[in-house]
Design brief:
There is one protein chain. With about 140 residues, the protein is an alpha/beta fold. The protein has one domain: 5'-nuclease (Rossmann fold, 3-Layer(aba) Sandwich). Helices cover about 50% and strands about 10% of the residues. Strands 3-2-1-4-5 form a five-stranded parallel sheet, sandwiched between helices. β4, α6 and β5 form a beta-alpha-beta unit. α1 packs across α2 and α3 runs antiparallel to α4. It starts with a strand and ends with a helix.
Length: about 140
């Protein structure tokens, strides 16, 4: 099974525009074709951001999709030695830490937020790049 860590911006974009690459990814994660890798920090951020009034997303639908994602997710526990520093936005650290802990790619719409100097061996992909690798 294909697994990856999906940055919150990918999940939000998938809800807001279901026809683009992020929308396809959200559908794949929801239906189990792709497995999201996450920890409690990522799950909490997904829920908090998707329920912001700014996005006008139906809470019932958000809860259904989040429940499906969480129930099919590969859960990781990040230990102290896997913590990262030096990202432009420290709030992005859980995504890189989970990707590193699980040995999977990180999919984000903001590749520049994860410079190679910090990401190291973790593949950082755009949603379109992830879809291209998935469909091979």
């Amino acid at each position: 099974m294909n697994c990856a860590v999906f940055d919150t911006n990918v999940v939000v974009s998938g809800f807001l525009s279901p026809v683009g690459p992020p929308g396809r990814i959200v559908e794949w994660v929801r239906n189990g074709s792709v497995q999201a890798v996450m920890d409690d920090r990522i799950a909490a951020e997904y829920a908090e951001v998707l329920k912001r009034p700014l996005f006008l997303l139906p809470v019932t639908e958000v809860n259904l999709v989040l429940d499906a994602i969480r129930s099919r997710a590969f859960w990781v526990e990040v230990v102290a030695g896997q913590m990262v520093c030096g990202l432009p936005d420290a709030d992005d650290a859980p995504f890189l830490e989970c990707a590193r802990a699980a040995g999977v790619p990180l999919v984000t719409g903001n590749v520049r937020h994860f410079p190679k100097s910090v990401a190291g061996d973790v593949k950082v992909l755009t949603p379109a790049q992830f879809i291209a690798t998935f469909e091979r």
